[in-house]
Amino acid sequence: MNTDGRPRVALRTALVLAGLLCSTLAALAQSPPKIEVVFRYDDYSSLSFTGFETRLIRVFEKTRTPLTIGVIPFPVSKDYHDTSPQSEIPLTEEKAAILREAIEAGSVEPALHGYNHQSRPRPLWGQFSEFKGLDWDEQMRRIRTGREFLKNILNSDIRIFIPPWNVEDQTTHGVLESLGFLGVSSGFDGGGGAVNNKTSLKFLPATSDLARFYESLRSARRASCAMSVIVVILHDYDFAEVDATRAVTNLAAFSEMLTSFAKQSDLRAAGMSEVMSRPEYGAALFAKNKKYMISENFIYPWLADLFNLNTGFYLCEPYLSTVYPKSVKILFVYAVIVLLACIGIGFKGGRLVFAKWPLSVLAVWLMTLAVLAFLVFDIQKDADMSYKGLTGLLMFSGFFLGELFAFASLWLQRQRRFKRGPLEEWMS
After folding, report:
1. 74, 135, 191, 225: which sits with the fewest CB atoms below 10 Å from its CB?
2. Are 41 and 56 in contact (CB under 8 A)?
3. What span, in angstroms and rounded, lies between the C-alpha atoms of 297 and 376?
4. In the chain, what are the domain boundaries?
5. pTM for the structure as a whole
6. Domain 32-316 class?
7. In 3D, which of 161, 143, 229 has the Cα closest to residue 201?
């Protein structure tokens, strides 16, 4: 048999396979990015840290990364959370000049971040907010005045509104729409981000912060979305140059992170208005994302990881239609398991305690109800509930129900044993 041609055939096969491998790798390297990262820096004002903000803007310019800056036109002079009358300090020419230069360079897009960022009187079950609950005329005055002031001093149009504390209402949406704003960048945490399916505004909320960015990136990469968007909210206290105790990074490390984006083919930085202008980022997608985020927020992170429930980015359709029902089912099963387990513990513990000390019934009930009331108040004062708050409510609700069942079973047992009806006779 003639085998002289076999080495040549093997060589040709190897070359063809190598060529296919190289072309595949090249195609992957040239594939369009599937994740866009939008950076949003809040609380730029006449009172913020000028030196730090100048350096931060330079980092974005150097790395050619777009940045949206939420500017407060007339910040109150003392504490944003203090509802008492305070003087207002308009954006200074020095701070405006820094922004004008960055806007002209194309690295910064300004957004209106409230009027003075001062919270209104806060209801017992409400959250901090400058705008929520204000009537139309007052919201119109604040938004129009703040926008005109920034347009004049920055020589730039203002198309995006960032509500202080990420909280606004449907009246805010109506005012913004009538003034021709492009959209709103609020958030999901703390009850923020009003749902309004009747508005034509676009919505691109903050989905992550610096501390959770890499976790959000990991989630976006494993999700089956053609395009995912991570909106990273930045504050000056995130950086060691301003607050060493609360910081999660410094400017040097942050600059390296931005530089690394260019080396990741599935990732690109994008401007907020660029993404927000796309037709899919309307009120309907925001409402679906918020509904999913609320359900996912109740689930422990390790459980969300186990069942591949991704968060920290703006989810797309049809992925949302798949993952939301899944999160609801997992949450339901988790709630049932925790509640039944704690009913069992409360029942067993209640029988042991009440059988030995019958008069402790009222004290145990009052203690359990007091803890429940504290949990409800602690959750509602920030208008937010996490997996920890939900677990606490389920646990102590289960304990209370178990104690009720324990008391009832002991009472019925005593009734059958002694055939004495009155409750007082058993407790005597």
Report:
1. 135
2. yes
3. 17
4. 32-316, 329-427
5. 0.80
6. alpha beta
7. 161
